[in-house]
Amino acid sequence: MCGTYWLQLPPEMPPTVGVVVFPGTNCEHDVVHALGLLGMRAQIKWHGDSELGDCDAVVLPGGFAHGDYLRPGAIARFSKVMSSIVKMAEAGKPVLGICNGFQVLTEAKLLPGALQKNAGLRFICDVEKLEVASNRSVASTLLQLGEIISLPINHFEGNYTCDHVTYDMLVENDQIVFKYVDNPNGSVGSIAAISNPRGNVVGMMPHPERAVEELVGGTDGRKVLSSFIEAVLNG
Fold this sequence. Notes:
This protein has about 240 residues and is an alpha/beta fold. The protein has helices at about 30-35, 80-90, 100-105, 165-170, 220-235; strands at about 5, 15-20, 40-45, 55-60, 95-100, 115, 125-130, 150-155, 160, 175-180, 190-195, 200-205.
């Protein structure tokens, strides 16, 4: 299962972003559409493929990989494609996990901590205000520290958790990318997104791809995805 889609292309062929699909992924076309609007070439990649080909970056989109059996992302982390994603992350290439993709990245140990059931055990579908806590990651370089943006969330297991040592490490290394203004799911430290120490791997529960058009969900998602695209172009 693969395909290449783009809505706008500059005269020269732009870099390629791989968008990985697991059984149960349901946001891949939203990501492709959003990246296309911003002029980026996107290629859907099947989780059973062992190589990412000529991709210069990768997005793990939202959904319910393998039905979220065991734990969200627990099965997906064993997919063949994950070895290539690990290599890409280690090489400093941009890697973005959105919602279920964030869960996969924690299960694969590319990001610390874990995602558990929301406080109150309820599914949340809403638009949340986020504070930019770091602008040194591939998802936030075009944002200002302390800036408030609004992005949709859509999850049942988006409650980020980690031990005290890990949390202190996240703070010390400036790895907390976005924080909820009004914590909707019980995440420790109101965390909505984190990065690895290098800043090239980011996991976030909010959906920037659903906020790129004014008539749909606002345009604050453009700032996040444009930061990611800039990292790809400069990579």
